[in-house]
Design a protein that fits this description.
Structural class: mainly alpha
Helix content: over 70%
Mean pLDDT: 84
Largest sheet: none
Distance between the termini: 39 Å
Number of helices: 12
Strand content: under 5%
Number of domains: 1
């Protein structure tokens, strides 16, 4: 579904970020811009597979994505890092939780896009930054700043207005946002490198997904190798179009300031909204207009506050 890292996108560790100079900054911004544009246009890719069940697409994403990550780690001589994570019981426990959430969130996002809920999924990614701050307060006793509370309250007004107007919760968007926050919360407890961690996440869920994939192939119910070579390429690419942006995201994290990363993260849901309306004809109804307006206002407050805070922090600590 990004993140959203929706998707299930990695949460950066502030202490791990290092600003490495103007040239590296330009490279990092270029890579992150490309990554976010890919995530913005990703619904177009999933819609090419809309006639395939989301679960089968998820299985192919898992298999081909794992092969790609494993080969890259092997080529760099880093496969041993996956074994080291497994040996650490605490890290393995949290990575197992990450794997289950990762599996669910990507499967749900693919289903949402292919079922005509692109705008609803985008709503979840817009809510995500503010929901992350709220969960930090509730779970980790982090203290949001005053204007962050204002931004959160504004977004809540938007969601509440949609509930009152339409008569039901925007459950698709909320589920996308909550699954992403749950992933970030679990991932925060397992301080392991991004690529080995991703490899292990895909490996842990493999018995479930790959078994189902084998069942589909053996029973003749699989779309793979039964329709066309073009269709097979789309399914194989399901892993590539999600794994490569994650690697690019990890590359950009250590080269670009967090403020810039925070602003770029709004590109994917904005692109998703435009794709949903302009290419696939999703209705931008009045209740959605109301909700999106307040959420966008909340995001504007949130972003400006973050920019001013980081700017004042640099001035205090040059």
């Amino acid at each position: 579904m990004k993140r959203l890292q929706p998707t299930s996108r990695p949460t950066p560790s502030i202490t791990a970020l290092q600003f490495t100079g103007e040239g590296e900054l330009q490279k990092g911004v270029a890579v992150l811009l490309g990554v976010n544009l890919i995530w913005a246009l990703l619904p177009i890719y999933w819609m090419q597979l809309s006639h395939v069940s989301a679960l089968e697409v998820l299985c192919h994403r898992s298999f081909w994505g794992f092969l790609l990550v494993a080969v890259l780690l092997w080529g760099r001589g880093r496969l041993a890092e996956v074994r080291d994570i497994v040996r650490n019981r605490r890290n393995f426990k949290f990575m197992a939780g990450c794997s289950m959430v990762h599996m669910f969130s990507w499967g749900f996002y693919i289903w949402a896009v292919c079922s005509g809920h692109i705008l609803d999924a985008a709503l979840g990614h817009y809510i995500l930054p503010m929901l992350s701050v709220l969960c930090g307060f509730l779970l980790f006793r982090e203290r949001p700043r005053r204007m962050q509370w204002v931004a959160i309250a504004t977004a809540i007004v938007g969601v509440s207005g949609m509930v009152i107007w339409y008569g039901s919760l925007p459950w698709v968007g909320l589920l996308v946002a909550f699954s992403s926050v749950l992933f970030a919360t679990l991932r925060k407890q397992a301080p392991v490198n991004a690529m080995p961690g991703l490899c292990l996440e895909l490996l842990i869920s493999a018995p479930i997904l790959w078994s189902y994939l084998i069942y589909l192939l053996v029973s003749g119910k699989s779309v793979f190798m039964t329709v066309s070579l073009e269709q097979d390429v789309w399914l194989i690419g399901a892993g590539i179009v999600t794994i490569i942006p994650q690697m690019g995201y990890a590359y950009g994290l250590c080269r670009v300031p967090l403020t810039t990363i925070g602003l770029l993260q709004y590109l994917p849901p904005t692109g998703n909204v435009l794709v949903g309306i302009l290419l696939f004809g999703e209705a931008f109804t009045q209740d959605k207009m109301f909700g999106f307006f307040f959420i966008w206002v909340g995001l504007l407050i949130f972003s400006l506050e973050a920019y001013c805070f980081h700017k004042s922090s640099r001035n205090r600590h040059p």
